[in-house]
Write a structure and sequence with these properties.
Blueprint: E1 4-5, E2 12-13, H1 14-27, H2 31-39, H3 67-77, E3 81-82, H4 84-89, H5 92-95, H6 100-105, E4 108-109, E5 113-116, E6 121-124, H7 127-140, E7 147-151, H8 157-170, H9 184-194, E8 211-215, H10 219-222, H11 226-236, E9 239-243, H12 249-252, E10 253-255, H13 260-265, E11 269-270, E12 274-276, H14 283-303, H15 312-318, E13 319-320, H16 322-331, H17 334-341, H18 345-357, E14 361-365, H19 367-370, H20 375-388, E15 398-401, H21 408-413, H22 422-432, H23 444-453, E16 458-462, H24 466-469, H25 473-481, E17 485-490, H26 495-498, E18 503-508, E19 517-518, E20 521-522, E21 525-528, E22 533-537, H27 551-563, H28 571-576, H29 578-588, H30 595-598, E23 605-606, E24 623-624, E25 643-648, E26 653-654, E27 657-658, E28 668-669, E29 674-677, H31 679-684, E30 692-697, E31 706-714, E32 721-725, E33 750-756, H32 759-763
Parallel strand pairs: 2-10, 3-4, 7-16, 8-9, 8-14, 9-12, 13-24, 14-15, 16-17, 17-18, 25-32, 29-31
Antiparallel strand pairs: 1-28, 5-6, 5-18, 10-11, 19-20, 21-22, 22-23, 25-33, 26-27, 30-31, 30-33
Helix pairs in contact: 1-2, 1-3, 7-27, 8-27, 8-29, 9-20, 14-17, 14-18, 14-20, 23-25
The structure holds ligand MGD (2 copies) and molybdenum atom.
One ligand MGD is lined by residues 104, 152, 154, 178, 181-182, 367, 371, 404-405, 462-466, 469, 489-492, 494, 509, 511-512, 551, 647, 655-657, 726-727, 729-730, 733, 747.
Domain Molybdopterin oxidoreductase: 108-431
Family: Belongs to the prokaryotic molybdopterin-containing oxidoreductase family.
InterPro entries: Asp_de-COase-like_dom_sf, MopB_CT_YdeP, MoPterin_dinucl-bd_dom, Mopterin_OxRdtase, Mopterin_OxRdtse_a_bac, Prok_molybdopt-oxidoreductase, YdeP_MopB
Amino acid sequence: MAKSIRPYHQPAGGWGALKSMGTALVEQHIAVSGMATLARMNQPDGFDCPGCGWGEPKHTSRFEYCENGGKAVAWEATTKRCTPAFFSAHTVSDLARLSDYELEMEGRLTHPLRYDAASDRYQPVSWDDAFALVAQHLKALPDPDMAEFYTSGRASNEAAFLYQLFAREFGTNNFPDCSNMCHEATSVGLPPSIGVGKGTVVIEDFDRADCILIFGQNPGTNSPRMMTELRNASRRGAAILSFNPFRERALERFQSPQSVVEMATLSSTPISSRLYQVKIGGDVALIKGLMKCLVEADAAARREHRQPVLDWNFIRGHTAGLHALLADLEATSWDAIERRSGIARADIAAAAAVYAKADRAILVYGMGITQHRHGTKNVQQLANLALLRGNVGREGAGICPVRGHSNVQGDRTVGITEIPSDALLDGLKARFGFEPPRAFGHNVVAALQAMLRGDVRVFIGLGGNFAAAIPDWTQTQAAMRKLDLTVHIATKLNRSHLVHGRDALILPCLGRTERDLQATGLQAVTVEDTMSMVHASRGHNAPASSDLRSEPAIIAGMARATLGASSKVDWEARIADYALIRDDIEAVFPIFQGFNERIRQPGGFHLNSLARERIWATPTGKANFLVCAGLCEDDAEADDAMLWLTTVRSHDQYNTTLYSLSDRYRGVYGQRDVIFLNAGEMAKRGLEADDRVDIITLSNDGIERAVRGFLVVPYAFPDGGCAAYYPETNPLIPLYAHDPESFTPASKGIPVRLVRVAPSRTAG
Ligand SMILES: Nc1nc2c(c(=O)[nH]1)N[C@H]1C(S)=C(S)[C@@H](COP(=O)(O)OP(=O)(O)OC[C@H]3O[C@@H](n4cnc5c(=O)[nH]c(N)nc54)[C@H](O)[C@@H]3O)O[C@H]1N2
Ligand SMILES: Nc1nc2c(c(=O)[nH]1)N[C@H]1C(S)=C(S)[C@@H](COP(=O)(O)OP(=O)(O)OC[C@H]3O[C@@H](n4cnc5c(=O)[nH]c(N)nc54)[C@H](O)[C@@H]3O)O[C@H]1N2
Ligand SMILES: [Mo]
């Protein structure tokens, strides 16, 4: 697609979405078979969409998929193959010059590969030799904590459980996880507040809510199936308010590809009643402003003997800490709130009035909230806002963190965590009879810090694209190259396979759309969505190559080779029949009681969340209002030229996977090296549309971090901020720029300055 910038004026969704999905199928050479595959997606007997973690309404509708789910399936079900012949034709240094887009467009990996330093090529290796190499390196470590076991959130519950079992029997709790870069602020922030680290709503709650607040989340792109709920809510007359620096198109107007009428008449549904363009990092200020309005309105209502605005029955019966919160709100000036949030007091008051009027409200949020140095504080202030009106543990109301990967939540539930509870470790010990390590392990930031210190020798990645997803590439990728062994269990070639250790393996696995045949027959796996619904997933496609193995089988192969005969786990039996793994999960985690039985119910089953029942598993036994001092100005240097940079996803990418170089809803075509900022900020810097700039981090450790030659795109964006795409801007994110509580990298709040590139450099 030719490079251009053309503002988009259509509603989101609609014919553009169908056309784009069709193009994705054709590009992967699967137009006809692709449609058959899609028909099985999210159906009772089919596979779970490998795209996002949004829930499905009971798996009933005939075509329960969306544009981007369709692209995720096309990406996996492609007929293109990346074979040993391809690797023998290219050195790894050559491959490193290809773009991320080109690497993945080579298609599905077909054969296990081992890096050969003499020829600088990946060469075929047998599965047994690959497992033996893993074992050799792991057994050579003086300390099991010198290995890192990374997980990306597509792994099934069965694969994730076996993976943590292997690593813990081997002797470490080092589980850096994609979730550490994603919703960790939720996992850390919500438990002290409401007693669970997950959301409290189920999908049916969206049918009953009067009001939906959406903070820092872009559903039209990243969880398009959520648009069905939002569209229905909007048509019922529910108020939808969005708080986002971008005017995301799908938050304004949506044409449902599943509505015959909208598609035929080219009509569409307005989504947000109002969109508030909050400044980058201004959410704590905004939320404190909203709470201040509620408290003021409540005082006025009580003076005038009208119905109170705060839910006093709930507050008195179920919460602790209100007085400290009130004192903090009192001490926060409107001046400071307006300055930091970028939203006028009158506008905040209008939003608060809508929220105050709603009997049942859902508070939705995404990466705009979690990926900040104050991500945990953001999450907790948002919970305060919900608690003030008793919007937790009631039908049609609740807190809804929208998870990313399709099973990232399940992976955590079944034990992928670097900070295991005693209950988890005791459960493993009781079931398997080995002594699991008790010391806490590494999250992503800690793993990278350990690599930089030289304290890590082996990295194993269960899916994902670690080297591209992490911050601070120049430093962190250099550290990865010094490892003794890197192992990637993957479906497609990506950057991480090229940023390799001295020894390196690529182990190709089955995808979710494919048949998984083991000794006792075809296997199903299970996943948990963002609403805590657990259900089975069965692939129907023929595997991309006869040399692929399933993720559980690869993990078992590594485990058997490493732990040998002394292992307490019968790995073969579990691979022959995954139902045995589910029995293990049930034995270790009592909430999975009746697991194998319950996944036979169509639509699966719900993992109970105590907060939904207003049982508060917190130290006070109550839901806690938690105070954060100030407005989270973070520690940016006072610098006039400074802008906050937020790194976001385009409409045509899945994390580090690029489906194309365009971003339809933001009007960007054929390119990704662009930076969005507003006319005022451009004028201040003497910039014009089409200028190119270097983006330079205001680092406080003396290391220069820059990306070069980005095209300036004027955009109605709040003052003081700019936006660019992830992962191209990951070199700008210092490893130290993370939330000190959850260790989430601050991908949505990096202080930068811009330097105009001399036209002579642009000309060529
Ligand atoms: N098609 C597709 N689907 C996906 C993914 C994908 O890449 N492609 N990724 C998956 C994964 S792993 C995840 S975690 C989710 C991510 O889904 P989202 O949470 O939607 O992630 P982002 O696009 O990174 O950013 C979300 C929004 O935050 C806004 N934002 C940026 N900074 C701020 C801020 O300071 N305050 C506020 N209030 N808003 C801000 C951005 O403008 C953007 O609209 O989607 C999942 N689904
Ligand atoms: N600057 C910045 N950085 C970010 C973010 C941001 O918003 N801004 N977002 C962060 C977030 S929210 C996340 S979740 C991480 C994502 O980090 P990761 O989860 O590590 O990255 P992905 O891009 O999702 O991984 C894509 C790769 O997964 C492999 N894969 C796909 N399907 C399968 C499968 O079924 N099995 C196996 N084994 N492999 C498979 C393919 O080889 C593919 O190349 O990035 C984080 N990094
Ligand atoms: Mo994510």
